[in-house]
Amino acid sequence: MEYAPNGTLRQRHQQGTRLALETILPYVRQIADALQFAHDQQLIHRDIKPENMLLGRNNEVLLSDFGIAIMYSTVHSHTRPQQDTAGTVPYMAPEQLKAHALPASDQYALAIMTYEWLCGERPFQGTMTEIAIKHTLVPPPSLRERVSTISPDVEQVILKALAKNPQQRFEHIRDFAQALEEASIAESPEHHTLPLKTAAAYSAICQPRVPPSSGESQK
User: Fold this and answer.
1) Looking at CB atoms within 10 Å, which of 66, 91, 125, 157 has the fewest?
2) Which candidate in 47, 106, 153, 175 is catalytic?
3) For the chain, what is the domain count?
């Protein structure tokens, strides 16, 4: 197994720490890529949390601890695969709490991590029983009410990944990471500035046409 000398993401960013979106995006992209590969092999991790993200020699994120991972058949059937209820409650999706984990359950957990990094706390607090009930029944609190600088687009991406119904989340976990990156680009001031060539062309198109003088020939 590859040696990871730089600890975990939890050690790097202690609980309660707020991170900038530009710091979060590379983490989400790397974790989503690793999980997409696992999902393509019909493997569900079921324990996505900062403690299970190791940092390699170059501070790359390494997905670890597949101790409770399960195989999931993508073949449609009337019966769900037999599962036990396992995971870390603050990061568990509603269906996982009911012993029906899906690949989308890992997406939900990654969205909880993203929410926590953005505002410094997870969406649901309380005892493990209270948190489990909130995962199942209570909508996550607005991120923008906790951190006003978060854009509506970024908030909507995270809330979509936190949908109670797994069918309402992104189709693939890599789609979640891509949507988050696109939302972050949309909120940057540079996104609203046209490149010089584009601006010149746009100006030419929008410039009002001046009718020719009487002495000029008409074409």
Assistant:
1) 125
2) 47
3) 1
